[in-house]
Amino acid sequence: MDTKITIIGAGNLGTSLVKGLVDGGKYQPSDFILTRRNTAKLVGFKEKGFGVIGKNIEAVLMANVIILAVLPQNIDAVLEEISEVVKSNQLIISLVSGVKIKNIQYILGNDIPIVRAMPNTAIAIRESMTCITTTEQWVTRIAEVKELFELVGETVIINEEKMISATALCACGIAFFLRAIRAASQGGNEIDFHANEALKMATQTAKGAAGLLIANQSHPEDEIDKVTSPKGCTIAGLNEMEHNGFSSWFIKGITVSAKQAKGLYSEN
Ligand SMILES: NC(=O)c1ccc[n+]([C@@H]2O[C@H](COP(=O)([O-])OP(=O)(O)OC[C@H]3O[C@@H](n4cnc5c(N)ncnc54)[C@H](OP(=O)(O)O)[C@@H]3O)[C@@H](O)[C@H]2O)c1
């Protein structure tokens, strides 16, 4: 049987994932079945050839891989619903933040293969940082999940207890870096440029900074040292930011996000 993938809860992340996988060239829209309660919001995907169904049970019966992409507060109801039909020859991949494999197994049963993956929305452009984990029992299923997510970015395999931290650093992290780009563009706007010009310039500069680290496999401080000449304008601006707590506030934001991520799901 060819791989047929059902996404239960095709919202922001679920639709970003299928866009990325189709753009990657290995999958066709017809390889996917998308579900959500308000299927009217998936009309555009239906027109492009994706399967769209309002009933999770039907969608589970049609797939061999089931990706859970609902919010943590909706996961128990979805698991209860599909537990009647899900089989041990299927694979469940959960993208749901804060919900442990043991929580999913508690409802679906111990014989259902479950792997967790924590991507970010850059998955739509195949630039996700996806952290993947499972328990000892399903470690043999990690490779196929890694292969799937490598089509849409970079992957790392981590222990399950680190998934909360991965959520803060990589999933929430997208928003942190976007806000940093927005702030840079506002600075550019204040000193000289129209808002749209400043945003384009700040965005490409951020892309270049990340690109340097990836291409050179270097540390940020190595690259910073290359642009901070003595008595220069870069070190003056950088030190002013640090005197006002730039690194400290960024770090604090990540630790607060991690604390919040821990409480997203209340175990029964
Ligand atoms: N967004 C991110 O960057 C990101 C990154 C990593 C992990 N995550 C995790 O991924 C999950 C989804 O996040 P998101 O941002 O994509 O949220 P979202 O946009 O709200 O998507 C969740 C979707 O689930 C659907 N849904 C709710 N109840 C359902 C049910 N019973 N059956 C089928 N569909 C149902 C909702 O649509 P209807 O109301 O129409 O049913 C909604 O479209 C969350 O658990 C989040 O923690 C998100």
For this entry, give a set of tags:
8 strands, 268 residues, eight-stranded mixed β-sheet, binds NADP nicotinamide-adenine-dinucleotide phosphate, alpha/beta
Order of strands, main sheet, comes to: 3-2-1-4-5-6-7-8
Give the % helix.
Answer: 40-55%
Number of helices: 12
The termini sit apart by 37 Å
**N to C succession of SSEs:** EHEHEHEHEHEEHEHHHHHH
Mean pLDDT: 96
**Unreliable parts:** none
| Number of separate strands | 8
* Derived structural class: alpha/beta
- Distinct ligands, ions and cofactors found in the model: NADP nicotinamide-adenine-dinucleotide phosphate
- Shape from CA axes? elongated
What can be said about the biggest beta sheet? 8 strands, mixed
- Quote the beta fraction: 5-15%
The whole-angstrom Rg is 21 Å
Descriptive notes:
Helix content is 50%, strand content 13%. The protein is elongated and about 70 Å long. The protein is α/β, with parallel strands linked by helices and 268 residues long. Helix 1 links the parallel strand 1 (5-8) and strand 2 (32-35). It has helices at 12-23, 43-47, 56-61, 72-82, 101-108, 142-150, 163-171, 173-191, 195-216, 220-225, 233-243, 246-262; strands spanning 5-8, 32-35, 51-53, 65-68, 91-94, 114-118, 128-133, 153-157. Helix 8 (173-191) packs across helix 9 (195-216). An eight-stranded mixed sheet has the order 3-2-1-4-5-6-7-8, sandwiched between helices. NADP nicotinamide-adenine-dinucleotide phosphate is lined by residues 8-9, 11-14, 35-38, 56, 69-72, 74, 77-78, 95-97, 118-121, 171.
Quick summary:
This protein has 268 residues and is α/β, with parallel strands linked by helices.
